Amino acid sequence: xxxIAAPAGTQGVTPKIYxxxxxxxxxxxxxxxxxxxxxxxxxxPLKHHDSLRYNRVRKEIRRRHIDLNDQKCLHAFGxxxxxxxxxxxxxxxxxxxxxxxxxxxxxDADNLDGFGIKxxxxxKLRAGADLTHNDFRVDKSSPTSVIRTVRNATRRFRIxxxxxxxxxxxxxYHSSKTWRKDRVVNLQLPALPSSNSVTVHTKDIIAQASGNxxxxxxxxxxxxRLLLLGLKRxxxxxxxxxxxSSLRTSKVYANK
Length: 256
Fold this sequence. Notes:
Strand content: 5-15%
Order of helices and strands: HHHHHHHEEEHHHHHH
Shape: elongated
Distance between the termini: 57 Å
Number of helices: 13
Radius of gyration: 22 Å
Structural class: mainly alpha
C-alpha cells in the first residue's frame, strides 16, 4: 500500500519501499496486488484514469514480464465477464427469458413463497409484465443458484456501482476507455453490461463451450429452446413459457 499510494516526486517511493517490492517473487507480487485491489481499492483493479498509481503498477508488471490486466484481476476475484456472460446464458436457457429482460434482472430476484418454494421474479420489459418462475431444482446450475452466485461475486461492485444500476444482478467493470454519459467525469465505475457486451461475450462463451464448432447468441439459445418446446408440446407450450399475449406471437417463434 505504501508503494502504490506513495505520491510522485522525491517524496514518493523510497528506495527501501521499492527494494521490498523488488524482493517479491512474481507470484507474490501478483497476490499482493490482488489483495490490495480487494481490500484497499474497494475490490476494483486500477484503471488508466488513476494515472499515477496505474502507471506505477503497470511499469512494474512490464518489468517483470507478467501477463496481467484488469480482466484477469476480475476473473481472480470471481466476478469477470466469463461469469456474468455464462450466467446470462443459463438464465435465458432455463427461464426462456428475453435476453434484455434477463440482462436487467434484479439482484434480489430469488425469493421463497409462502410454501417454501423458490421463486424467481423478473420483468418482461417490452410487455411491461411481471413474470414468475418456480425453481424446484437443487443443483448448482439451477436459476436460483446462478443468481446467488452472481450476487455474491458482485457484492463489492454493488457498493460502488452507478447508483442507477445497483439494483441489477449483473454488474461489469468495463475495460473500455470510453465512458457512459451518466458517469462522473474521469471516473469508471461498475455498471450494468450493455446489450452489445452481452451479445459479444455470450457468443464467446458459446464458441468456447463447443470447441468453436457452433456459434450462436443468447437470443438464438432462447429461440431454439422455444422451438424445441413447440415441437414437443405445441404452440400453447411456447405461449406459456415465453409469456406471449397471443398464439400469433408464439407461431412466429415456431416458424423460425
